[in-house]
Amino acid sequence: MKTLTRVIQVKEEIRDMRSQGKTIGFVPTMGYLHEGHLNLIRESLRKTDVTVVSIFVNPAQFGPGEDFARYPRNLERDSEILKKEGVDCLFVPGPEEMFHKGHNTYVDVYDLKDKLCGRSRPTQFRGVCTVVLKLFNIVGPDVSYFGQKDAQQAIILKRMVEDLNLDVKIDVLPIAREEDGLALSSRNEYLNKEERKAALVLSKGLKEAQMMVEKREEKSEAIIDRVKEMISQEPLAKMDYVEIVDMDNLDPVVRIEKETLAVLAVFVGKARLIDNAILRPKE
Ligand code: AMP
Fold first, then answer.
1. Ligand 1 nearest-atom number relative to CA 184
2. Which three-class secondary structure state does DSSP give residue 51?
3. Extended strands (E) in the chain
4. Which ligand 1 atom lies nearest to the CA of residue 183?
5. pLDDT digits over 176-228, tens only?
6. Where are the domain boundaries for CATH 3.40.50.620 in the chain?
7. Domain 2-173: which topology?
8. Is residue 37 flagged as an active site residue?
C-alpha cells in the first residue's frame, strides 16, 4: 500500500494508474476505522481495479465548540488495517495540504444543507461538500463509496454530483451495526459503559418505528411521538431531532404511503449520535 500525504503525489499516482486503463474506487473517511468503513472499502476492492482511501479529519465540517480536537484518531492502527485489506493507496493529507492559507472557495447544496443535522450544525455540509469535491478533483474516482449511516450526507453529495456534472458514481451501502443494533460510528468511542447501553435507544426507536409501520400505522406524527417518548425515558439521552422525511428531498412526510426515511440525532453523554432506517409500508 502506498501512503501519500501530498496532493501532487496522489495526482501522479492516479495518472499512472489511468494510463494503464485501471478503474479507480475511492472511500473518503475521517479514520478510526470500523466495519462500516471496511464494508465500503471491500466493495471498492471487489468492484474497481485500484482502491484509494483517504483519512482526513476535516476541520471545515466541525463548528466552533464541536469535537474536532478530540475526534478519535489512530493512524497507525488504521494503516495496518488498510494494508491487510489490500488497499492500494492511502491518502493522509495534513490540514494545510487540503486547506492552504487563503483558501476561500466553498460549496453549498442549498435547502438540503439546512434540514435535519443542518439545523444544529449549520456549516457541516458546506464543509463536507467542499472537502469531498476537492478529494474528487484530486483522486478522480470512477466510483466513490459512502454509507447510508450518514443518509443526509449521501443525498446531498448525490445532488452535488448531479448539479456540478461530476464524472463520479456515488454508491451508498447499508448501515453496519453491532449485534445489539447500535450503528457503528467512530464517535461511539466517546461512550462509557452506561452511555453505550443508553445509546441503544436510537436503534430501538427506529425498530419501533418500523414495527408501527408494519402494523399499518401511517401517521408520521404518531410514530415520531412514540420514538420521542422512548428517548425521553432514557435519562442519559437527549433528543436533537426525530423526523420522518422524503427519501429524495428530506421534507417532512405526513402520511407514510411509500418508502420513507426515519432519521434521528440524539446526544448521549458527550457524543451526538445519528441513525436512520427506511420505513416500508405494506402493500
Ligand atoms: P466517517 O469516517 O465517519 O466520515 O465515515 C466515512 C464513511 O463511512 C461515510 O461514507 C460514512 O457514511 C460511512 N460509515 C460510517 N459509519 C458507517 C456505518 N455504521 N455503516 C455504513 N457506513 C458507515
1. 19
2. strand
3. 2-4, 24-29, 50-55, 89-91, 143-147, 169-173, 237-245, 260-268, 271-279
4. 19
5. 999 999 999 999 999 999 999 999 999 999 999 999 999 999 999 999 999 99
6. 2-173
7. Rossmann fold (3.40.50)
8. yes
